[in-house]
Amino acid sequence: MNAMTDTGSIPAPTHSPSEFLAYETECRSALKPLLTGLLDMAVSAGWNRRTAASALMYLAAQQVSAASETSMIG
Question: What does the alpha-carbon distance between residue 49 and residue 44 come to, in Å, rounded to a whole number?
Fold first, then answer.
């Protein structure tokens, strides 16, 4: 199994979470190159890009769900 060895860096936000639209847009911009690289790696490994993107959406939704459950418990 190959692990990602060079994930790059993610810049810190310059907007506060209270500036929701700007904060979210900035986060998307920061993550987009990493996501593109991850999808490129999946395609290079033999996965269909659409399948890999769908799997990432599923995994991201799990993270959102887990975060929601944690905030309801705490």
Answer: 9
DSSP, res 16: -
The answer, as to whether pTM is greater than 0.85, is no
Residue written as tokens 């993550």? 31
- For the chain, the farthest-separated pair of C-alpha atoms sits apart, in whole angstroms, at 41
What mean pLDDT is reported for the chain? 89
> By the 8 A CB rule, do 38 and 4 touch?
yes
Contact 34, 27 (CB under 8 A): no
User: Which is nearest to 34 in space by CA: 45, 22, 42?
Assistant: 42
Residue 14, phi then psi, degrees to nearest 5: -105, -10
